[in-house]
Amino acid sequence: MEENFQPIDPIAVALGPISIHWYGVIIGVGIALALFIAMRESDKRGLDKDIFPDLMLWAIPIAIISARIYYVAFEWDYYSQNIANIPKIWNGGIAIHGALIGSVVTAIIFAKKKNVSFWKLADIAAPSIILGQGIGRWGNFINQEAHGGEVTRTFLEGLYLPDFIVNQMYINGTYYHPTFLYESIWNFIGFGLLIALRKVNLRRGELFLSYVIWYSIGRYFVEGLRTDSLMLTETLRIAQTISIVLIIVAVALIIFRRMKGDSNARYLDKSV
């Protein structure tokens, strides 16, 4: 039976030929809140209060570009025939793993230039990163993308979801798994966990590596439900493969850095 409700308009504000999309607004809100939290924490940890704004001036554009390049590279069959669509990120199509690669490389270079510990910056930023990811998934919700397989309205209502979510999951005559929501909730829980772990005073670098492990576990399982995954082969999903690799690398780094004594400093230490 065809439903009568309309999806949420992806355009938040239209000013003549200029359109501001909800996708961009939501991403912007996530970045702003993440930056605010990182700035407050960096001041407590003895760093210059402007260090994260300075870092973000480089990291944000590089992360967006690398996220888009990553996505386009694995969808090249389409984009090679539609070159004009490559810059249209407001229509969706950025990969968080690409953003992470770009931002981590940027942060490593930035830390060396500023003569501060990359691991200290990464630890402070970890809760902000996962919070921004949790908020950003709602941009996928507005665009009706990054969803899972077919379900029934009864199934969605059984999750006690508000009608605006259930209705938005009705796409071209079919209801779908709200995988954006599953991952968003996982990330919000991760944010709370990382904030709590700050008080545990982990060894330097281990808060960030805990983020990598937590996010990758959730992403692996959520990705298995999605219908729009970037594929490495016909059966191998890129995000799941990367998630497994990241978990292994993060655990190995924790062990290796402890064995070498590279992580003797603690999170609450104010040394740079």
Strand arrangement, largest sheet? 3-5-4
Number of strands: 5
Mean pLDDT: 91
Uncertain stretches of 5 or more adjacent residues:
none
Task: Estimate the global geometry from the Cα principal axes.
Answer: globular
Number of helices: 10
Hey, roughly how much beta strand do the residues contain? 5-15%
* Structural category: mainly alpha
What does this structure look like?
With 272 residues, the protein is mainly alpha-helical. It is built from 10 helices and 5 strands. The strands form 2 sheets. The protein has a 3-stranded antiparallel sheet. Strands 1-2 form a two-stranded antiparallel sheet. β1 and β2 form a beta hairpin. α1 (22-44) packs antiparallel against α5, α5 packs antiparallel against α8 and α5 (118-143) packs parallel to α9 (206-223). The chain is globular and about 60 Å long. The protein starts with 10 loop residues before the first strand and ends in a 12-residue tail after the last helix. The model has no long low-confidence stretch (mean pLDDT 91).
Sum up the structure in keywords.
272 residues; mainly alpha; 3-stranded antiparallel sheet; 62% helix; globular
Which SSEs are present, and which pair or pack?
Layout: E1 11-15, E2 18-21, H1 22-44, H2 51-74, H3 76-79, H4 96-114, H5 118-143, E3 150-151, H6 153-158, H7 163-168, E4 170-171, E5 174-176, H8 179-198, H9 206-223, H10 238-260
Antiparallel strand pairs: 1-2, 3-5, 4-5
Helix pairs in contact: 1-2, 1-5, 2-4, 4-5, 5-8, 5-9, 8-9, 9-10
